Inverse folding.
């Protein structure tokens, strides 16, 4: 009989800047046993982020690295990189982290950092993606989980989900509909990573069965 070797639980770190609902979706999936991983820490650039409360409720260590306290982005990112190294994470999940990471961080964690974006990339990268979609008049919008590279929302795509854009939608109503999909697709992407099922081939991410 073939012996099945259980997967080692992956160490998962998080970066978030705000309310952290996507962060909550992932840690809920970990707690439910759906993701073979352990949340090892949250880093936030915002000392008032509600994600801090979510992390503490889940027993996940928090590092607050307040961007406003640093004289430059370079100095801030030195501290951020040191904190990320301290976590010794297999994967970092950007769950509403609102800053573009510098090249040194992106290089060090290449293939081990994913982001959730509220648009069907490559359409509508950057801020206010839902507003961009409504203003452009598209009929379908959605969300994308992608690996992080040194561009803005340009990394290889892992999973996308679609939602319809209704005729009376505004930025807020569309954002709410997309967010519901984000809460399922981000935990799924993290699960696939932790199960060693993601294979990067050039720009394409293949999912092993």
């Amino acid at each position: 009989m073939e012996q099945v070797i259980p997967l080692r639980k992956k160490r998962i770190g998080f970066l978030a800047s705000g309310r952290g609902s996507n962060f909550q979706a992932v840690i809920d999936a970990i707690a439910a046993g759906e993701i073979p991983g352990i949340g090892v820490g949250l880093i936030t650039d915002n000392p008032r982020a509600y994600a801090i409360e979510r992390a503490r409720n889940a027993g996940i260590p928090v590092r607050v690295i307040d961007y406003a306290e640093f004289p430059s982005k370079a100095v801030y990112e030195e501290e951020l990189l040191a904190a990320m190294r301290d976590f010794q994470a297999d994967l970092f999940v950007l769950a509403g982290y609102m800053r573009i990471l510098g090249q040194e961080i992106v290089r060090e964690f290449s293939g081990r950092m994913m982001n959730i974006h509220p648009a069907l990339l490559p359409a509508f990268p950057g801020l206010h993606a839902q507003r961009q979609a409504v203003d452009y008049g598209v009929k379908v919008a959605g969300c994308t989980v992608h690996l992080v590279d040194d561009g803005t929302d340009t990394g290889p795509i892992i999973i996308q989900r679609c939602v319809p854009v209704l005729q009376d939608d505004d930025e807020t109503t569309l954002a709410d509909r997309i967010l519901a999909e984000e809460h399922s697709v981000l935990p799924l992407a993290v699960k696939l990573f932790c199960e060693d099922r993601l294979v990067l081939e050039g720009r394409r991410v293949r999912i092993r069965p």
